[in-house]
Specification:
This protein has a single domain (24-173), classed as Jelly Rolls (Sandwich). It has one helix and ten strands; from the N terminus they run H-E-E-E-E-E-E-E-E-E-E. The protein has one helix at residues 2-20, and strands at residues 40-42, 44-47, 57-62, 68-76, 83-97, 104-112, 123-128, 130-142, 149-157, 159-173. The longest helix is centred in the N-terminal third of the chain and has 19 residues, at 2-20. Keywords: Signal. Residues 1-21 form the signal peptide. It comes from Mucilaginibacter frigoritolerans.
Length: 174
């Protein structure tokens, strides 16, 4: 009888863990698939030379401070989701921002309506300059009314240097 109760107890906790585990909404968040599969690429590269986990990461490299270079992905928001936890590991090397305060290496989220129109301003999760070792950036964001999808963006915005990105995730919170 004790053995049956112990097995039942273990099964209960396994079910509880599975119920609380959330699926990553981001495609290829670890950049393990070839050619940055799932991402809209504007000058980034997959790199096997500097990564947080797995075999690859994404490298965004810019030599000038006169344009935006990076990657983004648009993701549909599942129904009945109230908030999303966004997370990524980022690293910078010699990032020099342009003239504006918002320039630099950025991890930003923009919510979109059903017609892909932006709902309000983008939300910066982190903005970095200089040299920064691998840092986990995360933030729980409440979903705005009328949001249908979100764009997750990593870029050197009017900044030079290198931005490395790995283990990107967006998990629904009910």
């Amino acid at each position: 009888m004790k053995r049956f109760i112990a097995i039942l107890f273990v099964c209960f906790f396994m079910l509880m863990y599975k119920a609380n585990a959330q699926k990553n909404l981001v495609t290829n968040g670890g950049f393990e698939d070839d050619d940055l599969y799932g991402w809209n690429n504007n000058g980034a590269k997959q790199t096997p030379w500097a990564f947080k986990s797995g075999k690859n990461a994404c490298a965004v490299i810019a030599t000038g401070t006169d344009k935006w270079i990076g990657i983004d992905q648009i993701v549909h928001i599942p129904k009945k989701v109230q908030s999303i936890e966004f997370s990524a590991w980022v690293k910078t090397n010699n990032v020099v921002k342009g003239k504006d305060d918002w320039d630099g290496a950025v991890f930003t989220v923009v919510f979109l309506d059903a017609r892909d129109k932006e709902l309000g301003e983008g939300i910066n999760i982190i903005r970095l300059t200089g040299d920064q070792d691998w840092t986990q950036a995360n933030k729980i964001i409440q979903i705005p009314e009328k949001a249908y999808s979100f764009k997750i963006l990593f870029a050197l915005g009017n900044a030079s240097g290198t931005l490395l990105v790995d283990d990107v995730s967006a998990k629904a919170i009910n």
